[in-house]
Structures are given as structure tokens and as C-alpha cells.
Amino acid sequence: MPLGKYGFPCGLFSFLSFQNPLQISVNRFRLIPRNSSFLIFGADLVPTRCRYEMPVLKLTKKNVDGLEPGERTYLARDAELKGFAVRVGPTGAKSWVVCYRPPPGGRGVREKVVTLGQTSTLTPDQARRAAADMLARVRLGADPAEDKTKSRKALTVAEMIDRFDSDHVAIMVKPKTAVTHRYALAELKQAHGNLKAEKLTRSHLAALHSQSASRPYSANRALAVWAKLYSWGASSGYVPEGKNPTRGIAKYKESSRERFLSTAELSRIGEALTEAEGDGLPWRAADPSGPKARHLARPENRIIRFDPAAIAALRLLILTGCRLREILHLQWHEVDIERGLLFLGDSKTGAKTVVLNAPAMAILNALPNRGPYVIPGGKPGAPRADLKRLWDAVTARAELQGVRIHDLRHTFASFGAGGGLGLPIVGKLLGHTQTATTARYAHLDADPLRRAADKIGAEISAALDGRKPETVTPIRKVGQ
């Protein structure tokens, strides 16, 4: 590379001789080389910035290896593929690059340079193919440099989860549901938090989902939360519209968790509740002959006595089919004894009206008003936290295993569906907003099937006995 008069690297045609200082000052913008600037002192021309002229050659391995570093970074452009070049740094580092003018193009648009990779990692043929693909996208209107900048600024999975938590979960999701949401989000964050949200694929989530195959219910709930995360991210503009890597991942088959109590089981629960209201229930202690037997209470003191309000709450759950929090968080101003209604301001499905039956109204009438909540807790003005201790004692006394408090709601629905009330009525009583939720009790609505079975059985039985089946004679209207 030739050097200028003052030792600065200049192009082949950049060394100019000037005789007249006035001519220099007048014509400097026309005569000086492009991309150079000068300071004029008398008759001398002193270059302050000068770039190498960009050599043009076929970018083969031999030619690229022969490029020597200069004092400044320069580009060596390919003679065959316009826009394909090698960038050579002062230290000798060499990178394949693509030079282009983004749409609409033209001299008025500044040229952009995008790095493809180091010459040590990509062969000339690989780099040439990548450059050709990128230049083809440019001709179709793409801007690879802008896309790269946006990619750097794009949120990671962890960052999108944090925003989803603060902007949606904390505001729109109920506290208890938020706990399960955050558990699923933490699992995703730990596995792929550093990945760009746009780069998360179905295979990533499928592998994470498969790790919880032994817990199908939890795995499927987590998958639903991840789908919700990406739906929110798309609507918020953090990921492209329609981007949802959970789509196409099959859910695990879940065994039914529903349990319907029979009349005999309800009878045993009733006896246990009556005993709890009286002398109390015996508590389940460790083995009296075990190593900790000396710490056990005396046999006459091994009785648990419960708050009457807690026992009343359990009875209300059985009689109304309400959810646990709907009863524990029930306030007196939501109770309308005259009309026999509960006006719940907030429930899992929003505002809800509960129709009270006579036994439930009797329980509410008997409860004393000890604060804003119908079932008060240990602290003044606060609701009761749970009924776990009471429920464990009651089910143990009733000799029931694997029965949850929520199964009382299923039992309420089963009595309604099995009694021929119809699924729409049962759904209204439970406060379901979607008919699909009530459809789980369809197999219990056996009244039409029972009538059909009775009719078929009567005809077959009559045929076996050699008699005609009993028929119902229709009543004719007068005058017919």
C-alpha cells in the first residue's frame, strides 16, 4: 500500500501536488480525495484523516491470507459478489462482512456493514453463500443490521417472565392462582432464562414438560401457564404475533381427581361433626409404645375441641357446594337472610350469587356476629385461614381416606345431577360460567337413561313371561 508525503496511508491517486495556495483553498472540495480531510497551512496540504482505498480482488483463502494489516481497519471487497468483503483490523484480525445499503437504497442511504464471522471459522465458500443469502434478503426489503440490533435489544425469557409477573400476574390473577403461576414460571426461568424469548422453541418446552411426566397434573398446568406467558408477550409486542412454542405439545393424560361421597359416607361425616360439636374429636397420636410415648398427653386429655364457627363452615361447604375460600372469606354484608342469598363480590369466576337452602340458612342464623367475617379467624377482623386440622380429624373419625375438602363440592353437584335436576341448573348453583365445566357431571345425570333402561327391561321381561308389556293409555281430550 503506497504512503503519502507525510507518511499517512493513502490511495494510489490521493497524492496530489498543489502550487497555488489560493487555488487549493478555492478548489479544495473538488481536488481532495474522497473520505479525506486536510488542514491548509500556506502552500502545504496536511492530511488529518485518510482511509485506505478498498482493494478489490477475488476473496479466496490464499488472497485473504495475504492481506496485511495497516494502521487502520480497511475492507477488501470481493471482485465477483458485490457487497461481500473482508474486514482487516490493525491487529491482523480478519472477518467476513456484508456491505449493503438498506431499502430504498441509493447513494443517499448510508452503507451498513454486517459481520458474518471470523475468517478462521468460516471458509470463503461458506461465507460467500451466507453473504449471497443475506444480500438476497436485502433485495427483498430486509435490513439485516437492523434485525441484529433488534435481536440484541429483544427480551430474554427471564426478562419477559419478570414483566409478565409484575404487569399481569400480580394484577390480574388471584393470589392463590398466582402461586401456581409463579412456580411454573420459576421452572421455565431456571431452565431457559438466558435464552432470547423469540428463540425459545417447542423442543425446549417439550423437553422441560417431559421432566414432569410423573406429575401429569402439575406438568399440564405448567404448560398452560407457559402458553399464557407467550400469548401475553405477543399481545404486548415482546415476541412476534402468533409466537407460542407450547403449540403442538401434547398434554399428559390425567386420572380423575373427583370423589363423590355416598349417602353412607355423608352419614359418617355428619356423626363426626356432631361429635366435634359436643365433646370433641380424639386426636391421632403416635404409637403409645413408641420412643416418644412419655411425651403423650394423658388418655383423658387426648381430645381436640374445635371452634363452632369452623364446624359451621364445614357444614356450609357440604350444603352449598361453595369453594373453600368463598365460605372462609364470606362477610356478613354479603349475606341476605330474608331472600336466602349470598352475594359474593369476588370468587374464582368473579361476582357470584349463591342460593341458600333451608339447612344452610339455619346454620347462618345460628352463628354469632363476631366481626366482618362470618367465619372469623384468630386475629380480630381477619378471616379463618383454613379448615385442614378439622377436616383431617373429621375424615379420620369417619374412616375416610383420600377425600379432599373440594370433593364436598363435587358431592353437592353429584346429588343434583343424579336427582335429574339437569346440568344447566347444577351449573347455575355451582356458579359455573362455562357449560363445559359442568359437563364433567353428565355421567351422573342418569334419569333419562334410567327411564329408557326401565322401558327396555319391562318389554324384555314381558316377552320372557309370555305376556304383553304394560302400556300407558293416553288420555283423550273431550270431544275426540
Low-confidence stretches: 1-52, 472-480
CATH architecture of the largest domain: Orthogonal Bundle
CATH class of the largest domain: Mainly Alpha
Quickly count the domains: 3
What is the element string, with H for helices and E for strands? HEEEHEEEEHHHHHHHEEHHEEEHHHHHH
Structural class, by secondary structure, is: alpha+beta
What is the CA–CA distance across the termini? 120 Å
| Strand composition percent | 5-15%
Sketch the major β-sheet. Answer: 5 strands, mixed
List keywords for this structure.
disordered N terminus; Double Stranded RNA Binding Domain; 11% strand; hpI Integrase, Chain A; disordered C terminus; 3 domains; 480 residues; DNA polymerase, domain 1; five-stranded mixed β-sheet
Describe this structure in words.
This protein is an alpha+beta fold. The chain has 3 domains: about 100 residues, Integrase, DNA-binding domain (Double Stranded RNA Binding Domain, 2-Layer Sandwich); about 80 residues, DNA polymerase, domain 1, CATH 1.10.150; about 180 residues, Intergrase catalytic core (hpI Integrase, Chain A). It is about 40% helix and about 10% strand. It has 17 helices and 12 strands. The strands form 4 sheets. A 5-stranded mixed beta sheet has the order 3-4-5-6-7. Strand 11 and strand 12 form a beta hairpin. Helix 6 packs across helix 8. The N and C termini lie far apart (about 120 Å). The N terminus and C terminus are likely disordered.
